[in-house]
Structure formats: C-alpha cells, structure tokens
C-alpha cells in the first residue's frame, strides 16, 4: 500500500503540473518529463507482471491499465495489451478450459471480469485507428484490439444480445477496414438486424436496414472475396426478407379488405405485385386484388 501511495505522489509531482497548466512557466518539455513518466509506468508494469505470474488477473489488469494511462506509448505497450487479451480470454472461458474432473485453475472467475478486460482493450480502437491513419506510432497491438472487438461481438451474438454485438461488429468495420475480421463483421452486422425482426407482423424498419446491409455486403464482397457460403446465405437472407416485407403488405391488405376499406386494400395488393412480384405472396395478392376490384365495381354500381 505504501509503495502504491509513493508511486501516486511521484506521478502527481511529475504529471500533475502538465495536466493543470500550473507550476513552471517553461516549455512543455520541461514540465512533462517523458523519462519520469516511463519510469513510473515501468514500475506499474512490474507490479502487474508479478500479479500476472500469481494468476491474479483482475488485479494485474488494473495495474496494466494504470501503466498505460501514464505512458500510452510505452515500449512495453504491445506486450501489455497482448497479455491483457490473454487474461481476458482466460477469464471468459475459464470454465470451458478447466480440466475435466479437476479443480478449476486459480484464475477462474466470473465471465464478466474477462469481458471487462476485453472492453478495456476494445475501448482503444478509435484512438488506435486515428493514430494509425496519421502515421503516428501507437497505441500498439492494433490486431489484438480487433481480436478483442471480435471476441466481444461474437460473445454477445451467441447470447442473442444482438444490439450490443452490432456495436462491436460495426466498430470492427469502422476502425479496422482492412482487418482480418472485417468481411465477417460486415456479414454479422447485417445478420444482427435480421435476427431482431420477429416476423412480418412486426415493424419492418429493421428488415430494411438488414436488406441494405446484406445487399451492400454482396456488392462489396462478391465471391471469391467473401466465401461462397457467406454470399449464398446473404442472398438467402435477402429472399427471406423480401418475403417478409411482402407478407407485411399482404396482411395489411387483408386487414383493410375485411373492414371494407377497399381502396387501401387495393393499394397494398398493388405494392406486393409491384415490389415483391417474385415472392410467395404475389399469387395471393393477385387473388385478393381481383376480389377487391370486383367489390369496388359493385360498390360503384350501387352508388
């Protein structure tokens, strides 16, 4: 505890004046001493390394995070972030990795602890992408940041938390446009919208976004850029969604026809035939439209 308190005082003495703008009136180089900052971060990393060896991964991550906040461009940054990723995955999948019939390792903890560590890594994605675009060195471990985003995305996807998964898939597409997971992330982002729609009787706005994304996927990543399976499944999803949208319009037409709002029923039948003529609902819309027109003619004759 005393050692940690002493380090905090050193950090405040060295870095504090630069943050608040007080103290010396000399140049920034005289106010902020990068060598001292690096020395403090090195001490924090050394403490974290000991905790890592003791398999105290949550405590180790806290020390690594403090070290990176003091010196984001530390030469040890790449090793630190890679180790954070390792710890995060071990905590997430501890139960699955534990040897059958034997006690779980010391690092067994809740899944939430591993997720929190991966979130710490993923949170650096925006800054990392900006620095990379500017040609500035660091933050390091760019591929591991993408891996962290992917692990978080697929975890939430497998747990049917599609909104949170979508955030991480979109982050991969935005911050890692040439990454190893970019093509898959594009596909799964569209799939997240698809899976949030529960049927034709529900709001189709989610389907519209999924359609847009799947069509964009096929246009941007045709086979063999994307796998044949992904392209074919995207095409199948588009066909299914077109059927759902046709069903939504047909159901609405039936609703109006049953209430004798014939003009509205006619309009929705015509939408099905004009926009979804290749779907399974087109023949039914044709039959209903014929009946609606007959009813309209009879009504006009009576009037």
- The overall strand count is 0
Helical content class: over 70%
Structural class: mainly alpha
Order of helices and strands: HHHHHHHHHHHHHHH
Write down the overall mean pLDDT.
84
Number of domains: 2
User: What is the CA-based Rg, rounded?
Assistant: 29 Å
The low-confidence runs, each spanning 5 or more residues with pLDDT under 50, are 1-32
Could you describe the 3D structure shown?
It is a single chain. By secondary structure, the chain is mostly helical. The chain folds into two domains: 1-122, no CATH class; 197-303, Alpha Horseshoe (Serine Threonine Protein Phosphatase 5, Tetratricopeptide repeat). The protein is 75% helix and 0% strand. The termini are far apart. 33% of the residues are buried. Mean pLDDT is 84; it is low at 1-32.
In short:
The chain contains 15 helices and no strands.
Features:
303 residues, elongated, Serine Threonine Protein Phosphatase 5, Tetratricopeptide repeat, disordered N terminus, mainly alpha, 15 helices, 0% strand, 2 domains
Describe the secondary-structure layout.
Elements (H helix, E strand, L loop, with lengths): L1 H19 L7 H4 L2 H20 L3 H14 L6 H16 L1 H4 L13 H12 L2 H10 L7 H17 L3 H14 L6 H15 L8 H16 L7 H31 L3 H14 L6 H21 L1
Helix pairs in contact: 1-3, 3-4, 4-5, 5-7, 5-9, 7-9, 9-10, 10-11, 11-12, 11-13, 12-13, 13-14, 13-15, 14-15
């Amino acid at each position: 505890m005393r050692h940690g308190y002493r380090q905090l005082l050193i950090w405040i003495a060295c870095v504090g004046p630069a943050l608040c703008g007080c103290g010396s009136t000399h140049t920034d180089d005289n106010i902020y001493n990068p060598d001292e900052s690096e020395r403090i971060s090195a001490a924090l990393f050394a403490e974290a390394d000991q905790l890592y060896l003791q398999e105290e991964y949550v405590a180790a991550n806290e020390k690594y995070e403090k070290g990176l906040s003091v010196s984001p461009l530390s030469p040890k940054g790449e090793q630190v972030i890679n180790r954070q990723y390792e710890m995060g995955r071990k905590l997430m999948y501890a139960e699955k990795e534990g040897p059958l019939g034997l006690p779980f390792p010391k690092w067994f903890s809740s899944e939430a602890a591993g997720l929190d560590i991966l979130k710490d890594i993923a949170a650096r994605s925006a800054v990392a992408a900006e620095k990379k675009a500017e040609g500035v060195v660091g933050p390091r471990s760019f591929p591991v940041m993408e891996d962290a985003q992917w692990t978080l995305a697929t975890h939430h996807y497998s747990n049917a938390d599609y909104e949170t998964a979508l955030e991480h898939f979109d982050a991969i597409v935005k911050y890692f446009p040439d990454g190893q997971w970019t093509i898959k992330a594009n596909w799964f982002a569209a799939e997240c919208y698809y899976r949030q729609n529960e049927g034709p009787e529900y709001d189709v706005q989610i389907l519209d976004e999924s359609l847009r994304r799947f069509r964009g996927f096929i246009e941007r990543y045709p086979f063999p850029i994307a796998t044949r399976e992904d392209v074919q499944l995207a095409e199948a999803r588009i066909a299914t969604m077109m059927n759902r949208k046709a069903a939504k319009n047909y159901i609405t037409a039936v609703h109006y026809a049953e209430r004798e709002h014939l003009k509205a029923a006619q309009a929705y039948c015509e939408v099905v035939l004009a926009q979804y003529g290749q779907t399974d609902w087109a023949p039914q819309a044709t039959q209903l439209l014929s009946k609606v027109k007959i009813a309209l003619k009879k009504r006009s004759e009576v009037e």
